[in-house]
Amino acid sequence: MHVEHLAWGANGTLRILDQTLLPAEERWLEIGTLEALLEALRNLRVRGAPAIGIAAAMGLVAAVRAQAAGAPRAAALALVEEAATAIALARPTAVNLRWAMDRMRRRAAATRGDGDAVLGALRAEADAIWDEDRAMCAAIAEHGQPLMRRGVRVLTHCNTGALATGGIGTALGIVLRAAERGLDPEVWVDETRPLWQGARLTAWELLRAGVRHAVLPDAAAAALLSQGKVDLVLVGADRIARNGDVANKVGTFGLAVLASHHGVPFYSAAPTSSFDPACPDGARIAIEHRGAAEVSAPFGVRVAPAGSPVFNPAFDVTPAALVTGYVTERGILHPPFEA
Questions:
Q1: What is the pTM of this model?
Q2: What's the structural domain count of the chain?
Q3: Which of 10, 77, 129, 226 has most Cβ atoms within 10 angstroms of its Cβ?
């Protein structure tokens, strides 16, 4: 029921489905340089915390392959270090990006042999990261099934399906698995401004999968919850701090407040690679701020006066006190989170 959006290309390049063009156009990009990878990451051609980590690992191989091939080991490791450092800084909030680059660095450093051996080891590690994410998504989908029942009405935010991961998805993967089993879930899809990841991506995935859904303006979520039309709010996570605070697409915090007010359970679904034990709480999470044009002139259409200042954080932080539980590949975690 889910789509593929990542692949190895010819000669070790990275192929990605350009998510900025969905749903109007399905175009694959071939990425073979560091510059092209950084552009794709920064401009959300590939997005979603797990998918970012996978694409970064695969893209690292693509970025260094030409210069590292046949090079002495020391030179190859220097290339890897330089590229991995730049990649890790491309998106500051998603912990998977830094996690993947640290893992690739360790694999390269442990390799004996010249640049060809380093490249082979890096590709094997990137494949392992991808395979593990597929398995983690499947496990998250399975562990989330106790939250599902026939006809369950789920409100979600941003995109947490296959397009955001290497497998069936995290939060949306739970819903898709329930649909596969005939539970006929219904999904309320927040449009997710300013880039409409819900309207463009989540709705596209659900339509392809034949799952009942409707897209709503972000501002309509309060009215929807007040009318008793939501049984469960289910979102993803780009980073979860040690105390359980959740950094996710901006607008998630507001949903958590609304869910709490209306007595609706609020769950975050994420692999353990999105947990950051080195970060004590959400106040320490670096929040990415993006360009003004995404708000004032989305997709090239001006909707605000030229020159008006814009506040455009890509993420917000939901306090752990508002989170009912965390669906992971190891099961559902409930407060107290640190325990």
A1: 0.91
A2: 2
A3: 129
